[in-house]
Amino acid sequence: MKIPLVTLVSVVLSLGCPDRPAPDGESAAMEAQLGDALNRFAFRVYRQIAAQDGNVTGSPLSLHLALLMAFEGAQENTAAELAKVLCLPKDTKGLKRAARTMIARMTGMKGDGFNLRIANGLWGQTGHPFDPGYVNTIANTYAAEIHHQDFVGASEASRLAINAAVAKVTNERIKDLIPKGLVDASTRLVLTNAIWFKAKWMAPFDKRWTKPAPFHLADGSTHDVSTMRDTGPRGYYEDDRVQVLELAYRGGEVAMDIVLPKAGQDLSTLERDLSPELWKQWTAGITSRTVGVHLPRFKTTYGGSMIKTLKAMGLSDALNAGRADFSGIDGGAGHLYISEVIHRTWVQVDEEGTEAAAATAVVLKLGAAMRKPVEFKADRPFLFAIRDTKSGALLFLGRVADPR
């Protein structure tokens, strides 16, 4: 009998931890390669979930890390499919080192008011013959905590224990990651990734300037929303399709990008065109400008099963009880397959900064010549991302269709 392997992804915000050693040139190159794979995966996932109406948010980093932990135990065609879905390079020899370096660097980020926590977990059935090599890889490469649970005799208690651990990591923003009934006596392994991020802007908005302002929805209706205002030096890029605003967080390694389609440009067309190359074009072109910013406060939540999305991206064998090969996890003793992938996110942006699941900050010096302030007025649906400025990896990616 095939046994379900449940992969769960929770996203919220987390605290920085230990100091990290500076990566050497080889490590940095491998991390950049992993960041590129993550972003290719991010835009493929986003194109699937963007077909839904309203606000959408995901954490590419969280989902990618959780599935990478499953990939570590995959064999044969199951491994090949996962590698393709995760957009991994053909040579994955440096993958473990790159993942370890990226996690250590991100959790070691520091700054006044900057908090980022990435917590991976392996929750295995007590007594199941897990391969020691696999368990060591998950613990050492992904800094995962290893937990023993009795899914067979106490599946509900196990579910509550996992949810409690995720809630603690995410500062109670994700309280019920695993729905009731999702794990049962047939469950042998649950892999979790939880991210909590909370950081202050390098240049916070003054709450006294926040006023109601009209926001034009895609259906043609208009509603007043609380809109933050500021004029000052910001990272800025513009072309014939978009305006891009970069808001730096304290700490200097994470930033939020706001992508606003120009009047007459269709957001859905822009979403279909998203790619790592296009995003790099935007972010590489960012320069310091004096910008008059009008940005609504917003909070978005999103979550649920990712199985349909992953199937549309080409994942098949890993989800099939008759074809999945995760023998690298337990030598084939449990005939494991992925029965569910749950992903939840929570993001809030206000005058002080962001609470959610990732961030990056770049400090840009204002050019010598003062120019007329450019206006960035986010009064219609826009895209946002939280980006690690070193690797370019997207920690969060979403759309604000209605900030109310």
Q: How are the elements arranged and paired?
A:
Elements: E1 3-14, H1 25-49, E2 56-58, H2 60-71, H3 76-85, H4 95-107, E3 115-125, H5 132-141, E4 145-149, H6 155-169, E5 189-200, E6 211-216, E7 222-238, E8 242-248, E9 254-261, H7 267-273, H8 276-284, E10 287-296, E11 298-305, H9 307-312, H10 327-330, E12 336-349, E13 353-356, E14 374-377, E15 382-388, E16 394-400
Parallel strand pairs: 1-5, 1-12, 3-4, 10-14
Antiparallel strand pairs: 2-16, 3-5, 5-13, 6-7, 7-8, 7-10, 8-9, 9-15, 11-12, 12-13, 15-16
Explain how this protein is built.
This protein has ten helices and 16 strands. The protein has helices spanning 25-49, 60-71, 76-85, 95-107, 132-141, 155-169, 267-273, 276-284, 307-312, 327-330, and strands at residues 3-14, 56-58, 115-125, 145-149, 189-200, 211-216, 222-238, 242-248, 254-261, 287-296, 298-305, 336-349, 353-356, 374-377, 382-388, 394-400. By secondary structure, it is of the alpha+beta class. α1 packs across α4 (95-107). The strands form two sheets. Strands 2, 6, 7, 8, 9, 10, 14, 15 and 16 form a nine-stranded mixed beta sheet that branches. It is globular, with a radius of gyration of 21 Å. β6 (211-216) and β7 form a beta hairpin. It has two domains: 3-200 and 300-348, Antithrombin, Chain I, domain 2 (2-Layer Sandwich), CATH 3.30.497; 207-296 and 359-400, Alpha-1-antitrypsin, domain 1, CATH 2.30.39.10. 27% of the residues lie in helices and 33% in strands.
